[in-house]
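Hi V.,

You were right to ask for the full record rather than a summary. Here it is.
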Amino acid sequence: MTAIGFIGLGNMGGPMAANLLKAGHAVTGFDISAMALEGFAAGGGKRGASFAEAAGGGDIVITMLPAGPHVRAVYLGEKGVLANARKGSLLIDCSTMMPDTPCSMRRCRAASPGPLRRPSLSWLAARRRISPVASRF
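Predicted structure:
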């Protein structure tokens, strides 16, 4: 059983977190929507009081957020994922965001003092590819 923190329990994140629970993992979740958090807890998940608590509750932290500004707000700052995740945690972001978001977060981290400047922390972003078929539409 793996301890997982899951932030963003909406239309996409809720079912993903539910599948992790069904697979036997201990999942601490957080969402700003009380209804989403209720549904998660009803399915056996541990309710986190904040995204900092969810981030600190797992060896793996998964985020599924609506857009880049949400990702930056959740990851950066004293109460963010980077400041509160366990040392050695694997951070997985599945959010919908513009390709420049990981780059801007790298710059923010490099300029920040304290826990945000973890030398072992790096971003791997999926490259955007446009297929020949898709570009015709």
